[in-house]
Amino acid sequence: xxxxxxxxxxxxxxxxxxxxxxxxxxxxxxxxxxxxxxxxxxxxxxxxxxxxxxxxxxxxxxxxxxxxxxxxxxxxxxxxxxxxxxxxxxxxxxxxxxxxxxxxxxxxxxxxxxxxxxxxxxxxxxxxxxxxxxxxxxxxxxxxxxxxxxxxxxxxxxxxxxxxxxxxxxxxxxxxxxxxxxxxxxxxxxxxxxxxxxxxxxxxxxxxxxxxxxxxxxxxxxxxxxxxxxxxxxxxxxxxxxxxxxxxxxxxxxxxxxxxxxxxxxxxxxxxxxxxxxxxxxxxxxxxxxxxxxxxxxxxxxxxxxxxxxxxxxxxxxxxxxxxxxxxxxxxxxxxxxxxxxxxxxxxxxxxxxxxxxxxxxxxxxxxxxxxxxxxxxxxxxxxxxxxxxxxxxxxxxxxxxxxxxxxxxxxxxxxxxxxxxxxxxxxxxxxxxxxxxxxxxxxxxxxxxxxxxxxxxxxxxxxxxxxxxxxxxxxxxxxxxxxxxx
Amino acid sequence: xxxxxxxxxxxxxxxxxxxxxxxxxxxxxxxxxxxxxxxxxxxxxxxxxxxxxxxxxxxxxxxxxxxxxxxxxxxxxxxxxxxxxxxxxxxxxxxxxxxxxxxxxxxxxxxxxxxxxxxxxxxxxxxxxxxxxxxxxxxxxxxxxxxxxxxxxxxxxxxxxxxxxxxxxxxxxxxxxxxxxxxxxxxxxxxxxxxxxxxxxxxxxxxxxxxxxxxxxxxxxxxxxxxxxxxxxxxxxxxxxxxxxxxxxxxxxxxxxxxxxxxxxxxxxxxxxxxxxxxxxxxxxxxxxxxxxxxxxxxxxxxxxxxxxxxxxxxxxxxxxxxxxxxxxxxxxxxxxxxxxxxxxxxxxxxxxxxxxxxxxxxxxxxxxxxxxxxxxxxxxxxxxxxxxxxxxxxxxxxxxxxxxxxxxxxxxxxxxxxxxxxxxxxxxxxxxxxxxxxxxxxxxxxxxxxxxxxxxxxxxxxxxxxxxxxxxxxxxxxxxxxxxxx
Lengths: 487, 487
Known about the structure:
With about 475 residues, the first copy, chain A, is α/β, with parallel strands linked by helices. Chain A has helices at about 15-20, 35-45, 90-100, 120-135, 180-190, 210-220, 235-250, 265-275, 280-290, 300-310, 330-340, 350-360, 380-390, 410-425, 435-445, 455-475, and strands at about 5, 10, 25, 50-55, 60-65, 65-70, 80-85, 105-110, 135-140, 145-150, 175-180, 200-205, 225-230, 255-260, 295, 320-325, 365, 370, 395-400, 425-430, 450. A seven-stranded mixed sheet of chain A has the order 5-6-4-3-7-8-9, sandwiched between helices. In chain A, strands 10-12-11-13-14-15 form a six-stranded mixed sheet, sandwiched between helices. In chain A, α7 (about 235-250) packs parallel to α9 (about 280-290).
C-alpha cells in the first residue's frame, strides 16, 4: 500500500513499518525467564520471522543468542521498528536514543504512563513530543503491541504455550484492534481455534499517538484484511468524531464490526476505572455506529460469528432467508432464531412450491424451511437448492445439515459450495454435533462457506450479511421483514 | 428406585427396564451394512454393555455374531427389553409376538405411524392396545430411543464415527428428553465434547405411551440425574396439563430446563408440519413454565450453559454477583452481561472496600469487579475472595481468569474451588482463550466449578443459579436488582 496519505485527522504515515518491519530492536531485552524483555526476543527468533533482530540492554552482550547492544547507536544496521520494554521513568531517554538512530516505528509495551496518574501522563507527553519532533510513530504505551500473521511480527509477550497465535486463512482474513491488551491476547489465543483467518491483531493501550482512526484507514487499504474488528471501551471526544468520519468512507468498502463494552451503568463505571475512558452515553454510541455504517456486536462471540460470514460471503441484497434442512427440529429452531433477529423467512411462492413438490419425494415438507427429511442424501439438497434458486425468491440461504446420519454423504459440501458460486448469493451452513461434524465444518470453511454449530449463531451471521447489504447497497437493499435489528 | 408409583396421570411402571435392561432383543436385526437393524446390534455388542443380546429376524441365523431367532418365542432366556426396527405394517404382529414372550419394555424406532396420516395412526393404535392389554410400555414409535451412559443401553442407530456418545461425569449429570430424534442424536454427539456429564438421553418420537410427564417423574427419582432437560415443540392438551402438574412437585427438588421451539409464527408453522404438535400460543407456554418452576432456555447453548452450572453448583440465595478478575476488559464485559440478564453487581460496602484496600496492592481496582490486575497470581485471588466472602455481601461469585499471562499459576484452580467449598455459595469461572485455557477449564470442572469461555455464557449460567434459587427458596430468595428475567 502507498504510505503517507492524510485524511482529515487521520495520520497513516509510517504505520506500515509496524507490520512489515524488516529489522527489529527489543529495548529492554532480558535474560530473565518469563520476563517481558525475554518473551519478545523469543517471538522474533522464531524461524518464521525473516527480518533482523537486535537486543538493547547495557547489562548483556547477548540475549538468547541475539547480539545485545548498550544503546541503539551501536547497532550496526538500520532498525525499522523498536519495541520498548523499559520502566516508564527511563522511557524518554530511551526514545531520544531511538530517535537519534533514525528509527520511525516504536511500540511501547511498558505501563506506568497516563493510566497511573499525572506523573505518568507527563512521561507520556515527553515521549510523544520526541516522536513528533522526529517524525516517529508510537503504538502504546501500556499495550501488548502487534501480531501480523503474514510477516510474523509478534510483540505479544505472552508465552505461546499459554497463548496460541492465530493463523491467516487462504479464503479471507480479519484484523482486530483492541483497546485492552489482555483481551488482545485472549482473542489471539481464542481465534487460533475458531477456524477464523486472522491477519493482524493490534493492542492500542493508551493511544498516545496511533489510534483507532489511524488504523481504520490503514486497514481499509490493507489487502490482507477483509473485515475490520474493534474492541473499545470508549472514545475521547476528538478522536471519536474523526473515527466516525473515517468509518463513513470505509464501511461502504469493507465491513467494520465493533464490540463496545459499557452498555449498563455499573459496567461503564468499571470501564472508566479500567482504562480511564469516558464511556459516555451508550445510546449516543449506538446512533453514531449506525450512522457510520459500523455494525455493533453485543459480544465477541457475535463479532466472530459475523466476521466469519462477512469475510467469506458477499453481502445480501435483501432479507429473505431460505432454509433447507434434513432436521425438522433444526429447521424450527433456526426459523425462530432468524425471526428473532428480524429477518424474513417467507414461504415459497406457489410456482416454486409446485416445482419442489414435483422434484422432491412426497414426504418432504415443502415450506420454508424445506425439510428434505432425515434420510436425505446430498442430491436431495441439490434438487431443493436448484429449484429454489431459479428465480429471485430469496436473498440468503441457510443449509441445515445434521451429519449424524450416514445417509448424508460429505458430497453435500460440494453441493452447497457450488450453488453458492452459481447463485452468488450468501450461503451459511448450520451443523450441530461433535468431532465428525466439526471436521466437516472445517472443510466447508476451506471452501469458503461459513459454518455454525447452532441456528442462533447462524442467524447472527445472516443478520450481519443482511445488515452489511443494507449499508453497502443502500436503497437497493430490499427489506421484507418489519425490522432488521437483531436486538 | 422403587417402581410402579402412580401420581395423577403419571405412569412410571416399568420405565426402569428401558435404562437397566439386562437382556435385549433387536427385532428386525439385519446383516445389511448401514441399516438401522444392524446399527442397533452393533451398539449392544460393544464390551461395555454387560447384558445378554439377541437378534430376531426369520432371515438370519446370526447377525454380527449374535444368535438370531425367527421370533421371540425361540429365544432361550428372558428378555427385558425389545427394540423394534421393522416396517410399520408388520409392527402389530411383532408386538403380539413380544407380548407372548412376556417382555414389558419396547422401543419402536420405526417410522410410518401417526406422523404419516390416518393409516399410520391406526397401526399406532393397534400396538398401543396390545401394550395396554399386556402391561407393556412403549417408547416411540418414530424415535431413536435411549442412551444410558451408565448401563450402556444404546439404541441410537447412528454410527459412532459420525455421532459420538456422551459420557457420565463423576461430579454431576444431566438427563435430556427430546421430542426430535435428529436433535437427540445431534445433542448426544455435541455434548460428548462440551465437558458435560450426561446420564440419559431419551428420544420420545410420537409418544404413543411413554411421554414427557412419565419421564419427568422417573428422572426426578433417578439418583444419576441432577438436572432434567427437555427439547419440545409443543404439548397435546391433556399431556401438557399433567406435565405441568408433575413439574410443580419436581422443580422444588431438581432443576428442570426446557427449550421449546416455535416462538415466532413462521417457526410454529414449521413445528406443526414437523411433528404435528399443536405449538399453541407461546406466551401461554411461557406462563405455564414460570408457574411450574421450569426454567425456559432460549436455545441449546443456553440450556447446556445453565445445566452445567445447576448440576455442579448450589442454587443462589440472592441475585448479588461479585466479580473478581485479572482482566479489566473481561470484568467490564461480564458486568454488562450480568446486568443484561437482570442480576445485580453491587459495589463493595465501605467496610469491605477498606479491608480490600488494606490487603491488595494499591494499583488494584477495588470496585465490583475487583480487578486484581494482569500481574495477579493465585494468592491475590485468594486474598480478594477471602475478604469479600467474610460477611453476607454477595450471593454468587464469578471469577474472571485470563490464563495467557504466566504470572497466574494453575493453583488458582485450587483457590477458587476451596473458597466455593468454604462459602457454600455458587461459583462460576470465565476464562477466554485457546487450548491451554480449555484444558484449565476442564480441570476446574473436574473440581466441580463450571467454566465458560465468555462473560455472556457465564451470565446465563449465573442467571439460572439465581432463578433456580428463587424457585427453590421462594420468599427467602433476596432480590436486589429490578428484574431477574434474562430477556
